[in-house]
Amino acid sequence: MHVAHDVGSGLEIALRGHVNLVFCEVRSEPLLALELAARLAGLAPPVPVILLGERGDERLLISALHTNVAGVFTKDAALAEFLVGVQTVLSGHRAVGSNLMAAVLERVGETERAGRPVHRLSATEVEILTMIGQAKSISVIASMRGISHKTVRNHLANIYRKMELRSRTEAMLCAARLGLTAN
């Protein structure tokens, strides 16, 4: 077992190989949890990531299910349930904590009603749509992600195209409908 105290160190350990599973805080910094999951999913073989969050992080955890994340749990999940979830993920499946399941089912219904193909978004696009939903400016998003303003605008153009949106206002409303606006 390897323990890393930050996402950067954890990524280095995973890239060295011999890692079967990674646990990550949903609010990790400086590298976002969804970015970590996307990078690890691109390895050969892919390394599954289970995200952990506090009560109040439910929306972020559930939103992560639209990406490469293998499992989501709140930290107050029962130990037995958590261990079953870990075994499920190690068997190649996805796992969701039971205290998140009702919200997941509600979200599925909302997504179907909204008719938006959110599953087509990359992990980065989901993160940027989340930040747009939180009314963050292009400058702030670029600074937080360590990318240029132009790159943010390119991601926004892809989001608009994939989600069939016409404006930043529609993007903000879409993010709110999908539950991506939790802080």
Any overview of this molecule?
- It contains nine helices and four strands; from the N terminus they run αβαβαβαβααααα.
- Helix content is 54%, strand content 8%.
- It is globular and about 45 Å long.
- The chain has a four-stranded parallel sheet with strand order 1-2-3-4.
- It has two domains: 7-114, Response regulator (Rossmann fold); 118-177, Winged helix-like DNA-binding domain superfamily/Winged helix DNA-binding domain (Arc Repressor Mutant, subunit A).
- The protein starts with 6 loop residues before the first helix and ends in a 6-residue tail after the last helix.
- Helix 3 crosses helix 5 (98-114), helix 6 crosses helix 8 (149-163) and helix 7 crosses helix 8.
- With 183 residues, it is an alpha/beta fold.
- Strand 1, helix 2 (33-41) and strand 2 (49-53) form a beta-alpha-beta unit.
- The longest helix has 17 residues, at 98-114.
- The protein has helices spanning 7-15, 33-41, 58-64, 79-90, 98-114, 123-133, 138-145, 149-163, 168-177; strands at 22-25, 49-53, 71-74, 95-96.
